[in-house]
Task: inverse folding
């Protein structure tokens, strides 16, 4: 149980285009989802927290108009990188948790984005 | 977690030896800690956790030690195997906020390399 999937697992796009990444909780309802970004040889950096049905909370330094997050259902959150640039190339990882399980957070397999 | 550097610290151990990976956390109010294992191109995989009211917890081949006085966490892996080669991150869970969000804050990670 407690499986989180991401789609796509990798994507290559041209500079200036937008890319959508999906994060799904497959066997539980995720009231909260988190999006992280990880550059090579670095740690995971939290980008934003999204609660189902409300606006995402972005970490300092993360542009909300560039990284659009939607958490419209209890099993799906999406991250859209708008007008992507090569510096947006990174490994994007989501995680999900359910209400009442304060500590338990489950991670997706990640999405590798390369902007050319 | 601490600020992220460009190069992960590396720990090299002989197969069969014990490994000890250390981590310094940042928030003295954090009440829950987790160790994750991350293989190349994959999302973090849960290893073991510990709550702040404990100072030691054991799992299968792994032990986590928590020293709140100096804000230090360690992961001990017994009889290290080649399959243990990966990057290991500690993460701290800040206390629940008024918004109900409790994001994880990751440490910088340590690369474990097992020599067969």
Result:
């Amino acid at each position: 149980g407690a499986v989180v999937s991401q789609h796509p697992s990798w994507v290559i796009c041209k500079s200036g285009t937008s890319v959508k990444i999906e994060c799904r909780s497959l066997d539980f309802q995720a009231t909260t989802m988190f999006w992280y970004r990880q550059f090579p040889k670095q740690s995971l950096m939290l980008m934003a927290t999204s609660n189902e049905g409300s606006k995402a909370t972005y970490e300092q330094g993360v542009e909300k108009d560039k990284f659009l997050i939607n958490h419209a259902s209890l099993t799906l959150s999406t991250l859209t990188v708008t007008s992507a640039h090569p510096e947006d190339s990174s490994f994007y990882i989501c995680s999900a948790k359910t209400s009442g399980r304060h500590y338990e957070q489950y991670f997706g397999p990640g999405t590798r984005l390369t902007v050319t | 977690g601490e600020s992220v550097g460009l190069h992960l610290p590396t720990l090299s151990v002989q197969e069969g030896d014990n490994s000890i990976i250390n981590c310094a956390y940042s928030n003295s109010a954090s009440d829950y800690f987790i160790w994750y294992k991350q293989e190349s191109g994959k999302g973090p995989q849960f290893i073991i956790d510990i709550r702040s009211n404990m100072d030691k917890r054991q799992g299968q081949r792994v032990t986590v030690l928590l020293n709140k006085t100096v804000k230090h966490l360690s992961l001990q892996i017994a009889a290290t195997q080649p399959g243990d080669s990966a990057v290991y991150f500690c993460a701290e869970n800040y206390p629940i906020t008024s918004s109900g969000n409790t994001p994880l804050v990751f440490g910088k990670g340590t690369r474990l390399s097992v020599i067969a």
Summary: The interface with chain B takes residues 4, 6, 32, 34, 36, 41-46, 49, 51, 57, 91, 93, 95, 102-103, 105-110, 112 of chain A (CB under 8 Å).
